[in-house]
Amino acid sequence: MDWIDALGEAWEREFPGVDVSTLPPLVRLARLSLLIESFQQGVLEPFELTRSDYGVLAMLRRAGAPYEASPSDLTNRLLRSSGGMTKILKRLASAGFVERVPDPSDGRVSWVRLTEAGHKVQDEVFSAFLAATRRLLAPVSAAELREVDDSLKVLLDAFEPPPSA
Question: Within 10 Å of residue 128's Cβ, how many Cβ atoms?
């Protein structure tokens, strides 16, 4: 029995007859969230990037050539406020990792594009994440990872709103 099982038993004792079975999985997820956040920050620290910084770099990289997106798309997809995204983009631009480029069809609009330096650092961080993740999850079998992933999909569906049509 771990401390989360003990927590569940304590609530069962204090609230007899009340189903508290949903609490342990949620507490485990909350604990995992904290541990994953720490893990990610540990990988990012040598690159002097925050998780938000890397989220932008990774999204631009995944966009494919020419590795750009609108600021509003970045804001919406990364669940940031527009003010928060502005700060992230200023920080990344001052580091030379992104640049603003005007939209050729509409001068009022600009795009955020990954620079060569941004592309390079994103690739380095991605490689570091892959290596660290492989080390971390080495004791878990491929079948177990698939099972966990399937279960997490079910839980995410419970938390995330359905995509709008």
Answer: 15
Query: Position 34: which residue type?
Result: L
Decide if 8 contacts 21 (C-beta within 8 A): yes
Please report the pLDDT score of residue 10 as a whole number. 92
Q: SS3 letters for 31-83? A: HHHHHHHHHHHHHHHHHCCCHHHHHHHHHHHHCCCCCEECHHHHHHHCCCCHH
CB 111 within 8 A of CB 99: no
Tell me the whole-structure pTM to 2 decimals.
Answer: 0.81
Identify the pLDDT of residue 164: 66
The C-alpha atoms of residue 131 and residue 139 are separated, in whole angstroms, by: 14
Contact between 75 and 56 (Cβ < 8 Å): no
Residue 128: phi and psi, rounded to 5, are -65, -40
* Helix (H) / strand (E) containing 144: helix 142-159
Cis amide prior to 104 (ω within 30 degrees): no
Taking the chain (165 residues) in consecutive chunks of 10 residues, what is each chunk's mean pLDDT?
A: 88 92 91 95 96 95 93 88 91 96 80 96 97 96 96 90 68
